[in-house]
Amino acid sequence: MDFTLSEDQLMIRESAREFTQKILKPGVIERDSNQAYPTEEVRQMADLGFMGIMVDPAYGGSGMDALSYVVIMEELSKIDNSCSVIVSAHNSLACWGIEEYGSEEIKQRYLPKLTSGEMIGAFCLSEPEAGSDATSQRTTAEDKGDYYLVNGTKNWITNGKTAGLYVVIAQTNPELGHKGINALVIEADAEGVSTGAKEDKLGIRSSDTSSVMFQDVKVPKANRLGPDGFGFKYAMKTLDGGRIGIAAQALGIAAGAYELALAYSHERKAFGKEINRHQAIAFKLADMAMNIEAARMLVYRAAWLKDQGRDYAQAAAMAKLFASEVAMKHTVEAVQVHGGYGFVKEYHVERLMRDAKITQIYEGTSEIQRMVISRNVIKGSTYIDLS
Ligand code: CAA
Hints:
- The chain is α+β, with helices and mostly antiparallel strands and 387 residues long.
- The protein has 3 domains: 7-115, Butyryl-Coa Dehydrogenase, subunit A, domain 1 (Orthogonal Bundle), CATH 1.10.540.10; 121-230, Beta Barrel (Butyryl-CoA Dehydrogenase, subunit A, domain 2); 233-379, Up-down Bundle (Butyryl-CoA Dehydrogenase, subunit A, domain 3), CATH 1.20.140.10.
- It has 11 helices and 9 strands.
- The chain has helices at 7-24, 28-34, 39-47, 66-79, 81-101, 104-115, 231-267, 279-307, 313-338, 349-359, 366-379, and strands spanning 121-124, 140-143, 147-158, 165-171, 181-187, 193-195, 209-220, 269-270, 273-274.
- Strands 2-3-7-6 form a 4-stranded antiparallel sheet, covered by helices on one side. It has a 3-stranded mixed sheet with strand order 1-4-5. It has a two-stranded antiparallel ribbon with strand order 8-9.
- The chain is globular, with a radius of gyration of 21 Å.
- Acetoacetyl-coenzyme A binds next to helix 5, strand 3, helix 7 and helix 11.
């Protein structure tokens, strides 16, 4: 394993940093307060190639690897987690599966629109009564011969109202349990598709989260991703990659909060010296630096395994679990280092603290990640493979 970033990856990191400082940072507090969707910022991210990061250039993508993806996600997430979740859901949960499992016709039809940012993608798995227990799908995709008839409601959908395309997980043969589920591409303007109100959230407030309803929506058979009955495994495999994206988001949140706390600790004086000369603050900074480095190694390792074509489900679960817990713990500490200033919006850390919470919930809660990891451990996977 060698995680030294290549020249290209260093350049990508630099351009992501420049973009976040010049374009995202100036309006981030206002967008967060007003829950204003970052339309222009998303357009500019598409120009930078961030809306098709790992997609083959043959379909308009940037053709980058998973390690480059996490480098971009970390940088975006230091500043604007509404933008970074839009990028993560679009790349990991929409583009990836379409490229991996879509027919050539489906790839040609949708990937160029997704990679150019003309169409935003969303992934519809969660339902009012199927969150962590993802096999309990109530949304149905009735087989009608040459099309599926889709009915049901999906909840908590990132990019719910702005998406031009949904990848929808739905039950075709309930008697087959998870083996009766399918994954379908449904366009947002198809007859019978509607969306609920934008959710008023604790964090990632300018991103768009809503429910999506399907009422007698006719979906051509050609829009199915993978073979009949593959939909649940499709969802699990999609989430394995998605968890790398969210792990990188959590890493960025923790690193962003740490950088702010460190800078502030040099500026602020108390009892006659910089506050980082007091052990109470110095030790917090030491713990942050150590845990962020450990999180970065887990996140890079999961991406590296994916790039090597090796199994990364458990590595992704470990990376997401660890990085999201580090993000939550250390954003709270970063606010504490700032004292009263940390509690006001102008200093950015309170927003990162609010944003951190969702990384412990979406794309599988911390409890679900522990379930995934423990099942592997109990099966006898030692995991410690340093080759
Ligand atoms: N890759 C491939 N196949 C997998 C898999 C994986 N990672 N994980 C499970 N499977 C397969 C199993 O092998 C099994 O197949 P067989 O019967 O053929 O052996 C099948 O899937 C069912 O697996 P389980 O018996 O383990 O299923 P389960 O009911 O116990 O659930 C779970 C497993 C891991 C808990 C799963 O339900 C899960 O991940 N739940 C969390 C769902 C989630 O993350 N939701 C997030 C919503 S999306 C979101 O947040 C997006 C957003 O907008 C930001």
